[in-house]
Amino acid sequence: MSENPTRTLVHLVRHGQVENPTGVLYGRLPDFHLSALGRQMADTVAEHVAGWDVTHLRCSPLERAQETMQPIAATLELPVTIDGRVIEAENYLEGKRFDGSRNSAFTDIRNWWYFRNPLKPTWGEPYTEIATRMRAALQDAADAAAGHQAIIVAHQLPIWIARCDVEGRRFAHDPRKRECTLASITSFTFLDGRIAGVSYSEPAAALLPGKQTKKFVAGA
């Protein structure tokens, strides 16, 4: 690393709350949009980043991500690159419920084969593939914003796996313990093109009932 390394920040923003009255796993299904609260979360993130030195924006192709990006792009007056590599993880159980009811994916014996290996996981896209595509997207964003900052709007699981990849954590995990709330920001610090640290914040925490703002900083 040089004596005065080039410092670049890439921020992974999770989309805001989605309108989902039936409580299904929407995954990559079309026509799932932000709720009124989700739009408020997106506006809050836009206000939070307004003074940042952001020169590059990219976004998942899914509606909820693009709707979260809209106020950010308007505030920063920047174009948005749509990047399929930061899309939600593929899941074979899209459209199913996970609430313990008779129609739940867990209680339907036809779905049990998908749960045979939760370490991979066998219900959808392997964690290793998510990590590979997210690592490439992060690097491209860092290159595009070299010496400045970039924002990527994506989804909880890809963001969490990207963080686990950088921090050397195991990919297999309890989804309830992911530190990646709605409209949260997971930030990656690059020094001369290499990730040197990760930080996390929740600018929209006040909009999540029962939540308090969390911050942490960890070395890569």
TrEMBL record:
Superkingdom of origin organism: Bacteria
GO cellular component: cytoplasm
Gene Ontology MF annotations: phosphatase activity
SMART domains per the UniProt record, alphabetical: PGAM
Protein name from the UniProt record: Broad specificity phosphatase PhoE
Protein source organism: Microlunatus soli
